[in-house]
Amino acid sequence: MVVREGLARIPAGCAVAGIVDRRRQAMKADGIVTMISLMHDRSNGLGGGFAVYGCYPDMSDYYAFHLFYESSSAQTETEQFMSIYFKVEQKEPIPVRKNGLQKHAPRIWRYFVKPKVSEINEQDLSEEEYIIKTVMSINRDIPGAFVASSGKNMGAFKAVGYPEDVADFYRLEEYQGYLWLAHGRFPTNTPGWWGGAHPFTLLDWSVVHNGEISSYGANRRYLEMFGYHCGLQTDTEAITYLLDLLVRKHRLPLLTALNIFAAPFWEEIGRMDQERQRLWKMLRSVYGSALLNGPFSIIVGCSHGLIAMNDRIKLRPLVAAVNTEKVYVASEEAAIRAVCRQPDKLWTPAGGEPVLAWVEHQTSKHGSSSLCDGLVREVS
Fold this sequence. Notes:
This protein is α+β, with helices and mostly antiparallel strands. The protein has eleven helices and 19 strands.
C-alpha cells in the first residue's frame, strides 16, 4: 500500500506555474522545472507534479491514460476492465529514474486507447461521456487504482516529493510540449499521497491550485448530482470537474464559467444596472453550488491553451507575463524572471480576473471567438 502522509493540518501555501507557447511550438521541460524549483520553499515535499500538452504526437488520436496502482491485483482488475470497453493500442510502465521517490511509489503505467464503438452505441453516450464514466468507475470501484490523466496528446506526471525531484523521477527532460503546468504542494487539511498530488485532470482539462476551497462540501454534492465522483481526497479535484460540467456539459461560455467560480458579491450585484443584475441573480441562483469560496489561485491547461485566475478578493498570489509568443503565470514574479528576464509585459491580475492565453490555429468550443486572439484579459 502507498504511504499517505500529511494527515496533520499545517497552514501554509503552495506554488503554481505555467507556460504556453501560442504558436504551439514544443518546449522542453527545463523552463517549467526552473520556475517551480525557484519556489521550492512554498512546498514541503508532500506533493509535486506537472502536466504537459503535445507530448504524445505519434499517438495523438488515442486517449493517453496514466494510471497509479497500489497492488498487482488492482492493475489486473483495471486492465481486464479496460480490455472490455477499449481497444488498447499500447501499454507500458511509464519510465522513471531511481532517485529516492520510488521507495513508496505505486505501479505507474500508461495506456493508449480508443473506445469501442459498439460499447459507445450500446450505452448511448458521447465519446467524452464514455471516457468520464470510465475514469469515475476506475477511481470509485477498483480499490488501489487511480487515473492520473485521461486526455489526448497530454499527460500528468505527479508524485509525493518536491517538484524538481518529481521532474527527475519521471525523466521529464525526455518530453516536449507546447504547454506546461507545475505544482509544488504544501498540504493543509488533506493527505499528501500520490493520487492527491496536483495536477488534477479530466479529459484534456488539468488544474493546479494554491489555496483552500471552503465550499468543497457543497461543490462535491453538486457534482455528484451529475455523476461525478470526488474520491481523491483533495478539493482541487472538484475544480476540475466543475470546469468540465459547466463548459463541456452545460455548454456555458468559458468566461461565464470562470465568473461563476469567482462571482460578484451580492452588494456588487446590487450596484449593477438592471440587465446585469438580472443576469447575475440568475447565475448565482442556478449555479450557486459551483461558486468557489475561500482563497485560491488556479492555473488550468487544456488543448486550446492556458487559463489562470485568483479568487474574487485575491487572497492568493498570481503574476502573469508575456514575451513574444510565450505566456507565463506563476505564484511569484521571481519564478517568471528566472526564465524570462525582461518580459514584454508583466502584471498582477486583479481578484477574479481571468487570464486566457489561447494557442493559434484553434477554434475554441469553450466560449467566444475572442479567446482565439492570443492573450485576452476580460472581465464581464
